Amino acid sequence: DAMAANTAPKAKLAKAVGDIGATGVETSLIGWLAGADTETTKNIYYALGQTGTAASLPTLRKAAASAGYADEPTQAVRSYVALLRNHSAGQSGQGTKEAMNLNKKARAETQYGAAWSGFDVYASLQGRSAMPLVTKATGNASCVYRVGVLEIASGFMQAVDYKALAEQAKKRTGVEQKEDIIALIGNSGDA
Fold it and tell me: Given CB 3.0 to 4.6 Å as the disulfide criterion, which of 33, 38, 175, 190 pairs with 159?
């Protein structure tokens, strides 16, 4: 067992774990993070994102926060989102909380790509129950975030939701915000 004996480079072992979906080595991977170089850290995060359990959530949550929710060489946020997607299907309560935490904290750091990813995981678990967040997102200054959320929501929205967004468009003061809502409604079959 190469994991136990540490006979191969840790970066390559960690990448292989993620690629093949090996399980049962999470504790070893987390232990390898101490003193790991950037490439090894990236591959460990990748493996945890692909194969991790709830035990990996604190590690990847902390790594994403330490990265300021930005895209960076260790790809901590990408791995955190992957873990949320892979792990959350059977853990909707915990997954919902983690996804909303990512969404909120990434928005606070103006890292809208990460915030959008958090919303995407949340919406996949909550469906139409996510509509209050969609309404709130229509007022966000970031076009990337606003349009991303609207596109995700279009997958579960119903005619009544489009009507509610039309009302929101009337209340928005930003021209781009209004245009994004109108574009979504115009592209829907429920306009």
Answer: 190
**Contact predicate 191/185, CB 8 Å:** yes
Task: Quickly tell me which residue has 């067992």 as its tokens.
Answer: 1
Rounded distance between C-alpha atoms, residue 64 and residue 49, angstroms: 12
Check if the beta carbon of residue 191 is closer than 8 Å to that of residue 154.
no
Asked if 121 and 84 touch (Cβ cutoff 8 Å), the reply is yes
The Cα–Cα gap between 37 and 157 comes to 45
CA 179, 184, 190, 191: dihedral to nearest 10 degrees?
A: 20
Q: Chain centroid to CA 155: how far?
A: 17
Q: Residue 178: exposed, middle, or buried by beta-carbon count in 10 A (0-12, 13-18, 19+)?
A: middle
* Distances 113 to 25, 64, 107, 140 between C-alpha atoms, Å: 30, 13, 9, 13
Please spell the DSSP secondary structure of 107-137, one letter per residue: HHTT-HHHHHHHHHHHHHHHGGGGHHHHHHH
Q: How far are the Cα atoms of 24, 25, 95, 145 from residue 32, in angstroms, in the given order?
A: 15, 11, 25, 35
Q: 93 phi and psi, to 5 degrees?
A: -65, -50
- Residues in the chain, pLDDT under 70: 1-6, 88-92, 189-191
Q: What is the pLDDT of residues 51-70, one digit of tens each?
A: 999 899 999 999 999 999 99
